[in-house]
Amino acid sequence: MATKLHIKKGDTVVVIAGESKGQRGKVLSVQVEKQRAVVEGINMVSKHTKPNAKNTQGGIVKQEAPVHISNLMLVEPSTGNPTRTGRRKGENGKLVRYSKKSGEEIK
């Protein structure tokens, strides 16, 4: 069974550890089984590519590499501050994420 993570695709996060510490970005994708996320503009790596139909020239391409989710902290949409997250039952009985700092529900 897949585990629940504190971040989802589309969330804004801040990096709390590593080379990109302090930077913010939008989550482009989440790899649940590997507990990693690809964040826009964070952990850029140079990838060597062969010429192909998409890229006829080939060469060196800069792209984002996955970051472990333990190094990411969710940014509250309302205030813009980083916050820890928790889960509790919402009004419809489903689990919803909430900010431990303000207590607000995170959509």
Summarize the topology:
Layout (H helix, E strand, L loop, with lengths): L11 E4 L8 E8 L4 E4 L4 E6 L9 E6 L2 E2 L3 E3 L10 E5 L5 E5 L5 E2 L1
Antiparallel strand pairs: 1-2, 1-7, 2-3, 3-6, 4-5, 8-9, 9-10
Describe the structure.
- Helix content is 0%, strand content 42%.
- It has 107 residues and is mainly β.
- It has a domain at 12-77: Roll (SH3 type barrels).
- The strands form three sheets. It has a five-stranded antiparallel beta sheet with strand order 6-3-2-1-7, with no helix packed on it. A three-stranded antiparallel beta sheet has the order 8-9-10, with no helix packed on it. Strands 4-5 form a two-stranded antiparallel sheet.
- The protein is elongated, with a radius of gyration of 17 Å.
- The chain starts with 11 loop residues before the first strand and ends with a strand.
What can be said about this structure in brief?
This protein has 107 residues and is mainly β. The chain has strands at 12-15, 24-31, 36-39, 44-49, 59-64, 67-68, 72-74, 85-89, 95-99, 105-106. It is built from no helices and 10 strands.
Helix content: under 10%
What order do the helices and strands follow?
EEEEEEEEEE
What is the CA-atom radius of gyration, in angstroms?
17 Å
Q: Any guess at the CATH architecture of the domain at 12-77? A: Roll
Note the main sheet.
5 strands, antiparallel
- Which CATH class of the domain at 12-77 applies here? Mainly Beta
Mean pLDDT over the residues: 92
End-to-end CA span: 23 Å
What name does the CATH topology of the domain at 12-77 carry? SH3 type barrels
